[in-house]
Amino acid sequence: MLVATDLVKRYGTIQALDGFSLNVAAGEIVGLVGHNGAGKSTFVEIVSYLIRPDGGHVTIDGRPPSATRGEVGVAPQHIALYPSATVREHLELYGRLAGLRRAALREAVEDMSTMLRLGGIMDRRAGKLSGGQQRRTQAASALVHRPALLLLDEPTAGADLETRQAMLDVVKQRAGEGAAVVYTTHYLPELTELQATIAVARGGRVIARGTCEELLKDLPGEVRVTLADREEVSVSTSEPTVTLIDLLRRIDRPISAVDVRNPSLDDLYRSLAVHDAP
Amino acid sequence: MLLDSAPRDSTRPAGAPARTSRLLDAAYRIGALARHNATLRLRDPGQMISYIVMPMVLMLVLKPLYVRAVDGGAAQVATGLMVMFSVFAISLVGNSILSERTWRTWDRLRVSRAPAPELLVGKTLPLFVVMVVQQTVLLVYGCLAIGLPVPPNPVYVLLAIMVWAFALLAIGALLATVVRSHGELSVISDVGALTLSSLGGALVPLSIMPEWAQLAAHVSPGYWALSMMQAAVRGDAAGAVPSALVLLAIGLVAGAFAARRLARGWGRGGPM
After folding, report:
1. Does the keyword ATP-binding apply (chain A) (predicted)?
2. Residues whose CB falls within 8 Å of the CB of residue A267, separated by 6 or more in sequence, listed in order
3. What is the ipTM of this complex?
4. What is the domain count for chain A?
5. In terms of domains, do A103 and A49 share one?
6. Which domain holds residue A204?
7. Which residues in chain A are contacts of B34 at CB distance < 8 A?
8. pLDDT tens profile B127-137
9. Same domain flag for A34 and A100
């Protein structure tokens, strides 16, 4: 569905993308993670045809982004709503711009209202909504025409639990229906819930890609042993079980607690921070 | 390339020629944008109302002065203030377009199927109507309350109003794409409107202005608008055409510049 190869984008002296490649198949959710400035948003803007790359190629369903305008659902990182327009008016506008009419439009708007739990606020103006409600409205207006490629740039940033859950549910549903999804986020547990393939971006390129298990297998976990006198022994290890057995064998004092922690996506993220540090 | 279950348009006749179909789709999108922008505009009518009421009051107050000062004083005060306050309405256009950048909504529209010209037309169509209504109301008021002679051919007047509204719209769009903030736009449109319309003879009749000012007036769109409007009110089509052509040229150049800037996402980091 989405094939991006060796994308390069430079803003003055800043190299935003430096050989960024990413493929996303129909029905696949790719969680694009990385620190600020890693190139995630620039990638989304290129695929949306908002900016043109200096080098490399993008195709969507075999066509360039210029030929797929309006066929991609984009929810940008920042809230982009008309303060004095209601939620319903937003959905109707973007639905109409995608070509939906009459009954089809009404049906699509009602669907989004139900899926993103907007029922009680459909006739409220966007400027009067809470942050979470605005997030849901923005996502709904990106999804209302049922695009086959979704680009969701930190769609849950600053969102409450209800918003986050509603968003994850609708993304899972759309992917289940065959949509390809690029989902950038800093909230890594979301990607576990979405069962997403994870692509790690750093320095303007994707440096790793795989399932959660594949990416974590080389990261160290942690074994922590708390002694009766409250002293703690903590060891970072790629083989927590073996290390724990070894520790228990060597410690000859009373032990009050043992904690074995396998590597998580947060550890992956932290390891990136270490790599990014000057 | 939408999901299979997407509800699609079922109203279009099968086998309709592709070109007609594309035109209908474009018209539908422009209609959607125009409707949306008209709704937003009607929710915030204060500025529109003030640009209609203020010149009405001023016409009434200044009429005796103009009638005593120049021949055809009633026509001068009505058309002059109409032109001046229609220039002020440039800020309506500018703010309306600039807000799309403030709200970050312009990029969302650019991601849609509507190309830049459709976005611009859909955005400005309601404002065009606002300007036509403003000028029409002021001229009708001029006839009813100020003593402006009833135009022998209202069609000329309507055409003149539309040409002037188009030029103003294009200038407003251009301003919106070069300024950096609403404050900057406000300063440029207010000072510019006052200067250009005064220089064009909208406030003080050109005949009593110094010779250098009469020459300099030609650089002001207000001058051409006033000439065109006064000729149209007299029913002098031949007199209105040269000014109309100048205004159309200004409008086309400004509009093309604005459309190009808007298509590039104006102010974004990268060109499109």
Report:
1. yes
2. A216, A219, A220, A221
3. 0.84
4. 2
5. yes
6. 2-211
7. none
8. 999 999 999 99
9. yes
